[in-house]
Amino acid sequence: MHLKRLAKLEAIRAMLLEKGNETAAERAALLIEKEDARYQSQVERIIAGPGKARPEEAGAKNADGNEAEAAAAQGEGKGAAKGMGKGKGKGAKGDDQDEGEE
User: Fewer Cβ atoms within 10 Å of its own Cβ: the N or the C terminal residue of the chain?
Assistant: First the structure.
């Protein structure tokens, strides 16, 4: 995916330079730098291994300073917070059978 993005951005930048649009070509160059930074960040995260939080995510707090709410807001909540609490749900034991059937 990274290589496709880079190829597209490079093609756009080359076309803009051909047409003499220097300011737009500079913006395309900034987007290329941004894509490289995004890719490098992903590579570092993968190399760090599973369960390793990136420094900016470690100890993330919301505006009130509450870490648990900040984690839940980032989609890191578990169990009941995601609607997976106790109780019968679809596919629970006995859910598919009518009483009296054998």
Answer: C
Rounded-to-integer distance, Cα 31 and Cα 10, Å: 10
Q: What is the CA radius of gyration of the chain?
A: 24
Angle at 99 between CA 96 and CA 102, to 5 degrees: 85
- Please report whether residue 31 resides in a domain: yes
Which of 77, 83, 47 is CA-nearest to residue 62? Answer: 77
29-74 pLDDT, tens digit per residue, is 999 999 999 999 999 999 998 876 655 655 555 555 555 554 555 5
Number of H helices, E strands in the chain: 3, 0
Residue-number span of the structural domain to which 1 is assigned: 1-53
Prediction pTM value: 0.49
| Count of domains for the chain | 1
